Amino acid sequence: MAQLNLILLGPPGAGKGTQAERLVDDFDLAYYATGDILRAAVKEESELGRRAGEYMERGDLVPDEVVVGLVVDRIERSEAQDGFLLDGFPRNPDQARTIDDELSRLGRQLTAVLLIELADGEVIRRLSGRRMCVKNGHLYHAEFDPPKREGVCDQDGSRLVQRDDDHPDTVKHRLEVYREHTSPLAELYEERGLLRRFDGSRSTSEVHDHIRASLATLRLESEL
Ligand code: AP5
Predict the structure, then answer these.
(1) 224 pLDDT more than 70
(2) How far is CA 62 from CA 86, 129, 194, in A?
(3) 45, 55, 89, 188 - which has most CB atoms within 10 Å?
(4) CA 18 to ligand 1: nearest atom
(5) Which residues line ligand 1 (CB under 6 A)?
(6) Is 202 a catalytic residue?
(7) pLDDT tens profile 122-179
(8) In angstroms, rounded to a whole number, what is the distance separating the alpha carbons of residues 4 and 189?
(9) What confidence tier does 2 reach under pLDDT thresholds 50, 70, 90?
(10) Which residue has a Cα nearest atom 6 of ligand 1?
(11) What is the pLDDT averaged over residues 89-103?
C-alpha cells in the first residue's frame, strides 16, 4: 500500500490534534506532535523540558536546535516506515527544509500537507474552552465537546486541566508567531502542489470526513 507521509498545518486551536486522533486510527499512521513531545519533557523536568519550557510558556517557538532532532529521530523509526502524520512541525522554513532533506536522504517524499484554516476569533473561543487530560492528552472543549463527567477524562478517568499557554494574552501572541513564521509555509507547499485546505470552522466530524475523503483519494491515485 502507498505510503502517506503527512504534515498537519494550521493556527493554534484549529483542530490539528483533534483530527490527528481520528486520522491515525483511520490510516494506521505513526503520529508525532512536537507540542505533545515537548509538554511531556516539561512535565518530566528533563534537560529538553528545561530548555523548551520558558519558550512554550510565552507562546514563542522553541529554538530549532532543540526541536529538529526530535522529529528526525522519529521519522527514521520502523513504526514510521509505512507513513507518518506530523503535527506542529515544520513551523518555519528552516524546519521545512529539514524535513525535505531528511526524507530525500531516506528516499521518501511528502504526500500532502493538510492545512486546517480557522479565523482568529474562533481560535480564541476554542482555546479558552479547551481541556486536556493529564494522563494521555485526550482533548475536550467545555462547550463544544464536553466530557460526560465534568473535569474527568471519558477515556482514561484522569483529571482535565487547561493548558498553561491557553490564556488569552498568550494565545494572541501564538497567533502572531503563527502568522509571522508558520503561515508562509502554506504558500511554499501550495507552489509544490502538496497543500490541501480544510475549513476548520465546520464540526469536528465534518472536518474529519473531508480530510479522510481527500486522503483516501490521494492514496488511490498514488496506487494507480
Ligand atoms: P502545539 O501543541 O503544537 O500547539 P498549537 O500548534 O498552537 O496547536 P494547539 O495544540 O493549540 O491546537 P490544535 O490545532 O491541535 O487544536 P485542538 O485539536 O487541540 O505547540 C505548543 C507550543 O510548543 C508552541 O507554542 C511552541 O512553543 C512549541 N512547539 C511545538 N512545536 C514546535 C516546533 N516545531 N518548533 C518550535 N516550537 C514548537 O483543538 C482546540 C480545541 O477546539 C479543543 O478543545 C477541541 O476539542 C476543540 N475543537 C477542535 N475541533 C473542533 C471543531 N471542528 N469544532 C468545535 N470545536 C473543536
Answers:
(1) no
(2) 16, 25, 26
(3) 89
(4) 18
(5) 10, 12-18, 34-35, 38, 55-56, 59-62, 67, 88-89, 91, 95, 126, 129-130, 139-141, 144-145, 165, 174, 203-204, 207
(6) no
(7) 999 999 999 999 999 899 999 989 999 999 999 999 999 999 899 889 999 999 999 9
(8) 16
(9) confident
(10) 12
(11) 96
Domain ranges in the chain are 4-29+82-119+176-223
Average pLDDT over residues 198-224: 92
Ligand 1, atom 34, lies closest to the CA of 89
Alpha-carbon Rg for the chain, nearest whole angstrom, is 17
Q: So what's the architecture of 4-29+82-119+176-223 in CATH?
A: 3-Layer(aba) Sandwich (3.40)
How many angstroms is it from 51 CA to the middle of ligand 1? 20
Q: How far apart are CA 23 and CA 5, in angstroms?
A: 12
User: From atom 40 of ligand 1, which residue's Cα is the shortest distance away?
Assistant: 13
Q: Ligand 1 mean position to 20 CA, how many Å? A: 11
* The overall pTM is greater than 0.90: yes
> Does residue 179 have an active-site annotation?
no
Active-site hit among 163, 197, 202, 219: 163
